[in-house]
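Supplementary Data S3. Sequence and structure tokens for construct A.
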Amino acid sequence: MLNTADGTMKFRRVVLVFSIVFATITMLILISDTPDCERLRLGLWMAFSIHFTSFLLLLFHFIGLGFILKKLGRILGIYYFYMVGAMFYTQIIFFQSKECNIMAPLLYFWVMLNIIMFYVLVAYGIALWGAYICWESEKEEKQLQEAMQKYIKKISHREKNNPLMVDLEKSSGKKLLKEEGEKKKKKKKQQKQKQLAIAGEVNELD
């Protein structure tokens, strides 16, 4: 079974290859002599910028320059907003350019494929994030169960050793009770002896 860490790494590799392939094809289409449609060309430039920057960010991660991404911080967050906004605007352009499917079919259907693949990757990323959350909860539950099992074993081990401890406690308790009983008996004996001595003195005085 593929765990979440392996799934995340696989997702990054897929996006890395996808980004460079789509960026290359998009650029080839943009510089080609294919029939043009001004609106769709703008959408393709936006798609190219997203593919190329995504490729660079993932490349930094794979070649050990991930610390650069950590330093970017808020700028990286702004980039994510740009990526979503650019693809959303590209989608608007696409729906407003229905006549371009005849004028520039290659541009039209390539923009459509870019939009579809963007949503596929987003859906896969969300599913992977959900799997990560479930994996974390399962991990915590497993750790809790392991801790409970260790605790139960510890308790059962103590219970096995408890009879000896109980016997020792009982024997020591009996000794204490016996000593206390003997002390009480001695006190009573001493009290009786005193009473007898006092009674003898009273008889002598009489």
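Construct B, processed identically:
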Amino acid sequence: MKLAVSYLFIALLGFSSLVEAGDIAFGTLKGVKVYGFANDQSIRLVFNSDATHLKSDCNFVAKFTFSQHDEAFIDRVLSVALAAYMSGQKVRVHAVSDTCEGEFIAMQDSYF
């Protein structure tokens, strides 16, 4: 019985390492894109090449898909992103899952 529990624990531990939350990027924005295509309704934030805390497979892009968030959140994301883009302030975008889908956005001078 103890052996079966040990194997289950190891399997769950291995699975949990496959799902990582973390930052997508922190830095200034090169662009803010709003997609309204039938197959892609999203906001994409494109970070400048000097961004830090990068999630490597996101290629400097954080995505906010309309269908995955409520309308009020999407409005706030766009407001923060445009304010940061126009002022040259840094933005931090964080993902809850191991994707490039943003779940958190902040405009901040330094990383914390």
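The longest strand covers residues 29-37. The longest helix spans residues 71-87.
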